[in-house]
């Protein structure tokens, strides 16, 4: 996928390393606009349809912010109940209609495959903001962008990375997408830590194994790990068959400063797609890590704006015009 213009972004399977390098180069160039040091109106007059049929803070708001920072306007629909989907309208019809009102659409939906189904009816590019337990491609891109930036600090690249993924690897769509993206690099060591029942889906394990990467699968944190990245996840309660089933796993995968010191080295960067469940019975990423300089969770959220600005600029074919349409700050 070297040419982004007019294309949907539905899965990380679309990307090769050349495409990722392009996204990251454009994302880097967006920093002065995101920091309000410069202003551009390259998307003046353009409209983003921001459709979120499942709860979201970061993805929804950062898509909107990214579009606004490029000079465009945002129309939001949030919650299934506020849409004619609640009256039985199909995703195809909804897409035909809403794509007549927008230049591009970002969408989150609770069912796997639903965003791709919607895209079939859309007359404008659609970006997947998360479809059930399937994929979250823009989160994976911002995670990879963050990994790249964090490792650069240590003079390292992504090739040769050791990443530990912890928690609900079955329903956590961000780790599915990130695993697939990392498979494009060389000599990655994946340490997957979860109970068997919440393990990484077999097709993703097969993708990692077939790409020749090193896999360590375990049910709990053991010893002192030489991981560059510790990627913690939330138990995705909303995707379990029942609350009782979800409760079995709540609080099993806590990370706090003591556990970090015992199992990781001081170089290990701590990531989490957020939200972290701060309720006492879960608390998978303790506040006592907030002052740990290796906690990258809020650098991830900031990077999300840069990556989403890059995706809008590339998909709408204006990446080369951003500086031409600069205005006074
Ligand atoms: N990481 C993420 O998808 O967060 P939100 O659910 O808040 O969008």
Automatic annotation (TrEMBL):
Catalyzed reactions per annotation: carbamoyl phosphate + L-aspartate = N-carbamoyl-L-aspartate + phosphate + H(+)
E.C. designation(s): 2.1.3.2
Keywords of this entry: Pyrimidine biosynthesis, Transferase
InterPro entries noted in UniProt: Asp/Orn_carbamoyltranf_P-bd, Asp/Orn_carbamoylTrfase, Asp/Orn_carbamoylTrfase_sf, Asp_carbamoyltransf, Asp_carbamoyltransf_Asp/Orn-bd
Record-annotated Aspartate/ornithine carbamoyltransferase Asp/Orn-binding domain positions: 159-314
Highest taxon of source: Bacteria
Domain Aspartate/ornithine carbamoyltransferase carbamoyl-P binding: 8-148
Molecular function as annotated in GO: aspartate carbamoyltransferase activity
Pathway the protein contributes to: Pyrimidine metabolism; UMP biosynthesis via de novo pathway; (S)-dihydroorotate from bicarbonate: step 2/3
Function: Catalyzes the condensation of carbamoyl phosphate and aspartate to form carbamoyl aspartate and inorganic phosphate, the committed step in the de novo pyrimidine nucleotide biosynthesis pathway.
Family recorded in the similarity comment: Belongs to the aspartate/ornithine carbamoyltransferase superfamily. ATCase family.
The protein's name in its UniProt record: Aspartate carbamoyltransferase
